[in-house]
Amino acid sequence: MRDFSAEAMGLVIREHRQAQSPPMTQETLAERAEYGKGGAVSVSRIERGLMSPGDHRLAAIALALRLTPAQLVQEAVDRTASLARQRGERPAKLRDQVAETKRRHAEIAEKVGERTKITQEHGEAFNQVHDVARDDFFLRFVRVAETIGGAPGPEKPAEGEIESTGEIPAAIRVEAMSAGIANAIRGAAAGGAAGVAVGGAAAYGAFTAAALFGTASTGAAISTLSGVAATNATLALLGGGTLAAGGAGMAGGILLLTGMVAAPAAALAAAGFYVLRKRRTKKEEERLRAEVETAETALAQSQRGFDTLIDVLDRATATMDYVSVHGTHALDKWTAGLPPEPRTWESLGPDGQARYKEFLTMTGCLLAVGSINVSALLTAEPETLRAMDKAVDETLRYADRTIKSIV
User: Fold this and answer.
1) What is this structure's pTM?
2) Among 132, 215, 293, 336, whose Cα sits 20 to 30 Å from the Cα of 223?
3) Span 1-89 CATH architecture
């Protein structure tokens, strides 16, 4: 787990940015750290201690500030300790204690509100591009695939090939999901209930449910295939509840903010009565201070999960956006060159068959990204979060690299 606070990291980054000659603007830092559109807003939020950059983004920020990631982290660790010492020094007078506690109460309330806002913004951005990728690529491919008779399922990757990548869980998970989608396509083509005729999210839910909970062409359960060489945390990430139910994707449940603000919000509510009073006794001040410290602790404990959540949503959004632009263009070109219906697998020819398999792999990648259980990141214990973070990073890297190698 990180040994620095978001507040400390934000202060260190801001000081180094302003110490550049000439002073660097937030817009410039965002550009050099390879943030996308609106990156200055992200930098501002980092400097205000509302969120911390993920490891790969932290490295880019350090480079832009002419530091190493290790130097930036060490300064943040030292600043965290310094801030803790300052907060441990209580004012002597009750009046000053009251003023300090009120200030800390207001700061926590602001952070809780900002976290909610940030999560909603990133969740909505993901859902928007996810729905475009779903409708313009995933379901369009399925619709065309249903017209091809005799199409085989994807081949399971060879053990030697998987071992050489060092990414067994992600590779097998994608292939297993692709196999499930292929089976659903064949079932729909034969008159099953999973066809896209019902349209939109319901059709998507039917196909993703088949991929997550169905069986591969070998007869082995998809859940079994996706669990090979994977940790329990990796298995938990498959989730899929919102997708299988035809929902909006992995961001569908995060707006509940379970675990992220519940504890600090409850503490703030308990303390609110005393904050509103113009005068309070020493005993009331002690109680309020304890409630505020509980809220601060809860906020700090959930910081890494929150930071991971935002990082995952950013990266997943970029992947979905790439598919919605480049994937749909490639699909247009492929469908334009297909023979007229009724089509057979043989009528596609070698190039058309190869493209079909590649698009099937892309659907598996989309499902692997879309079914990441981001809500679990908010409530995971430190050890579990580390394992989940590693598994999520692997899935996002594998999916992004695979998709970009295809289109």
Assistant:
1) 0.76
2) 132
3) Orthogonal Bundle (1.10)
